[in-house]
Amino acid sequence: MADVANLAQVSYQTVSRVVHDSPNVRRDTRERVLAAIRQLDYRPNIMAQALVTGHSKTLGVVSFDTTLYGPASTLLGIEQAAHGAGYAVSIASLQSLNRPSMLGAIQRLQGQGVEGIIVIAPQKSAVVALGHLAPRVPLVAVEAGPDESVPVVAVDQFAGAAAATRHLLELGHRNVWHLGGPLDFLEAEQRIAGWKATLRAAGLQPPPFARGDWSARSGYEIGQRLLKNPEITAVFAGNDQMALGLLRSLHEAGLDIPGDISVVGFDDIPEAAYFTPPLTTIRQDFSEAGRRCLGLLVALIETGEPSVNVMVAPELVVRGSTTVRRK
């Protein structure tokens, strides 16, 4: 900063005011300082600023180490929202979200001077771990998250599953079968609950459901078993990858989709519109979830007061994999 001040022929304090976007700087002086900053490729020292201001403008994110579309897209949404608000992000990616690993990650992030922490908590084990943590900085959970231990931002999985099931019933299907996700995932449980509740509200008994592991392979293998039941005309898959595997098994059996069986997925991955046929699915707005999560955490940082949980509404996207029941 001193080098910038010498080159621009201004005081150190003037450079500081320009860097912090203070309005109390003449226009020509600001332009001279900015030109010096560009010429010297000056970058403010974040840690030094934190010592002076007491704010690091850095947030920590504890993430599940996975390539699953939901957690990965949630992380991207948080990063984009944070950077747009002027915050840097430090990420701790874990193989498992148990208490020891999460405690270690939070302690490492606290050691880096983060002002707040976001935990992407899609699994029940993560909820249990969060319930036993007492971080010294504000903390928010995102995705399914816990209900009470910390503030939560989540897409309404129950409502999304209900919309998927209701869509199939409104097309005249007499029942809807379900490919559920893994037992430890809160989102899978909420989608199962939404599916069951919608069927019961329509006076139907939910049929037995199978669990996959979110992969296309598991959807394919479950699909081969479903083919043994001629009554099935509609299936709600717990995510788009399992729906993809299901579609493959149905195609191999010579069935017409959606003429013989209608299929709905969940997530609206970028490839869903290019499946054969294009997949009807439930879209999750991960960007909005990231913005809402950041807003909740910043409010918690600034006020220290707990706030209400935030639910982001999902959206039904109708494409070519569903139609009116024909048999």
At the fourth level of CATH, the homologous superfamily of the largest domain is Response regulator
Contiguous low-pLDDT stretches (5 residues minimum) are none
Given the C-alpha coordinates, what overall shape results?
Answer: elongated
> CATH top level of the largest domain?
Alpha Beta
- Total count of domains: 3
Q: Estimate percent helicity.
A: 40-55%
Would you tell me the overall average pLDDT? 87
The termini sit apart by 75 Å
What is the CATH architecture descriptor of the largest domain? Answer: 3-Layer(aba) Sandwich
Radius of gyration: 25 Å
Largest sheet: 6 strands, parallel
The oligomeric state is single chain
Range of strand content: 5-15%
Counted beta strands: 12
Structural class: alpha/beta
What topology, given as strand order, has the largest sheet? 2-1-3-4-5-11
**SS field, number of helical segments:** 12
What is the chain-wise order of helices and strands?
A: HHHHEHEHEHEEHEHEHEHEEHEE
- Enter the CATH topology name of the largest domain: Rossmann fold
